[in-house]
Structure formats: structure tokens, C-alpha cells
Design a protein that fits this description.
mainly alpha, 3 helical TM bundles of succinate and fumarate reductases, 4 helices
Length: 130
């Protein structure tokens, strides 16, 4: 066996050297948004249960939902819902065998991010105007 001088090099790529492809980042983000949707669902379910419980419970839950923290959680959940929906549609195309090469995956990842942000902003505009 050859004596290879490995020096002090790392055995595997580190984050300083290796950069994840955008398709990998969006795949990881899809899983994260799926779990993050639970925060919005819990907040909405708590608000609905408080509405049927008592006026005091509803006042407390309504205060939390209307606070800046509730706004951030619900806005983040709304973006996560759009992102997760668009990622699911992209996954259907992947299942059919479309968009699997590197360039198409890169473009669909960019479209996924831009589309989710655009739809979230559009939803906020429609919500606050109408």
C-alpha cells in the first residue's frame, strides 16, 4: 500500500470549503417549513378554542394573536404554507422525471424561493387592503 502523506487536511469537506447546492438548501427548508407550520396551527387552534371557551380566554388569546409576536408567527406560517405548497408541486414534477438535471433544479429552486416570497407579500397586501 502506498504511503500517502495526508498532512493536516480534513477527512471530509467542511462548511468553510463546501457549499451546499441551492436544491439541497431548498429541500432542507421544505422539511423545516413543514415542521414550522405547526406553530401557526397551534396558535390558530388555541385562538379558536378560546373563542368557544370564555370571553376572558378569548381576550387573552386574541391579544397574543394580535401582538407583534403573533403577527410574526402567523406571517411566517403563511410564508411557510406557500413555500411548502410550491415545493410539493415541484416534487410532483420530480416524481414525473422532469427538472432533474442540475440547471433545471437550480432554476426551480430560485423560482420556489421567489414564488413563495412573492405570494406571501401578495397575500399580505390583499389581507391589509381588503
Amino acid at each position: 500500500m502506498a504511503d500517502v502523506n495526508r498532512g493536516n487536511r480534513p477527512l471530509s469537506p467542511h462548511l468553510q470549503v463546501y457549499r451546499l447546492p441551492l436544491a439541497a438548501i431548498t429541500s432542507i427548508l421544505t422539511r423545516i417549513t413543514g415542521h414550522a407550520l405547526v406553530a401557526g396551527i397551534v396558535l390558530i387552534v388555541w385562538w379558536l378554542l378560546a373563542a368557544v371557551s370564555s370571553p376572558g380566554a378569548f381576550a387573552c388569546a386574541d391579544w397574543v394573536v394580535r401582538s407583534w409576536l403573533g403577527f410574526i408567527v402567523l406571517t411566517g406560517s403563511m410564508w411557510a404554507l406557500w413555500y411548502h405548497l410550491l415545493a410539493g408541486i415541484r416534487h410532483l414534477f420530480y416524481d414525473a422525471g422532469y427538472g432533474m438535471n442540475i440547471e433545471q433544479a437550480q432554476k426551480s429552486s430560485q423560482a420556489l424561493i421567489a414564488g413563495s416570497v412573492g405570494l406571501a407579500v401578495l397575500t399580505l397586501i390583499v389581507f391589509f387592503i381588503f
